[in-house]
Specification:
By secondary structure, the chain is mostly beta strands. The chain is built from 3 helices and 15 strands. The strands form 4 sheets. A 6-stranded antiparallel β-sheet has the order 8-9-10-13-14-15, with no helix packed on it. Strands 1-6-7-4-5 form a 5-stranded mixed β-sheet. Strands 2-3 form a two-stranded antiparallel sheet. The protein starts with 40 loop residues before the first strand and ends with a strand.
Length: 249
């Protein structure tokens, strides 16, 4: 009969401090070509953005799988849901960057932007690369570079409800709304939005590129078209509006 003797293992007290060997965590931000990388991402280039009439993160979410940006009727807030992860209130779960400038408050997530050159929707936790509020993923929006595009761009759209959108070096968005408040005979869901963006880039050669982007956005909106349950009429005497002015650089 063979006998196996087990070596005695000394008992360790619960409050004993154990020194571990160093742990290194390395993360490298993705380059422009995400299609060839082992990562769940959707990339929309300039041609596809123009063909699909993409002018915001909300419109880009319509063709990005597992991404939802609901329309709450007002631009006061907007939540990005990726694979069911999102935050209706408080801090966002999905980050949004425009020309590498982070938008840290989701109250500023719902805005229009012209001259989009590329949109990246990276799904999954990205906190080690992009910092806070990116547990569900990150939206990266890039505008045209003056180093690769020169010229004048004009855009005009018109739709029902007297909805208009123009851009020509500066951006203007206007809508008279679709619902009339019977109390005062005025449209209650009107919207006016204008924005301007200046982008300066310097190419010093040998891979050295320096850029600065300054953007101003002004949003003015009316209230919500609340209906009475019993009559279905929109008629209320309550001051309701939303005003937002954003400056990023």
């Amino acid at each position: 009969m063979a006998t196996i003797a087990a070596s005695a293992v000394p008992a360790v007290a619960p409050d004993t401090v154990v020194d571990l060997s160093p742990i290194s965590i390395t993360a490298i931000k993705q380059g422009n070509n995400l299609r060839n990388q082992a990562i769940a991402a959707t990339v929309i280039d300039r041609r596809e953005a123009e063909r699909s009439h993409i002018f915001s993160a909300k419109s880009a979410s319509e063709i990005a799988p597992n991404v939802l940006i609901p329309d709450y009727g007002s631009r006061i807030t907007s939540t990005i849901y990726v694979r069911g992860l999102g935050s209706r209130i408080d801090q966002p779960v999905v980050g949004l960057n425009v020309d590498n400038v982070p938008i840290l408050n989701k109250n500023n997530y719902d805005f229009d932007i012209a001259d989009i050159s590329r949109v990246e929707m990276i799904r999954g936790p990205q906190s080690s690369l992009f910092g806070r509020n990116t547990m569900g993923g990150v939206f990266n929006i890039y505008t045209l570079s003056p180093l690769s595009y020169q010229g004048t761009r004009l855009m005009a759209e018109y739709g029902t409800g007297n909805t208009m959108r123009f851009s020509a070096g500066h951006y203007f968005n206007s809508s008279d709304g679709f619902f009339t408040n019977e109390f005062n005979g005025e449209n209650c869901d009107w919207e006016r939005q204008g924005s301007g963006r200046i982008k300066v880039e310097y190419d010093g050669g040998n891979g050295f590129v320096m850029e600065n982007v300054a953007a101003l956005s002004v949003t003015r909106q009316g209230g919500y078209p609340y209906r009475f349950i019993d009559t279905g009429a929109i008629s209320y005497n309550d001051t309701c509006f939303y005003r937002r002015t954003t400056l990023t650089t």
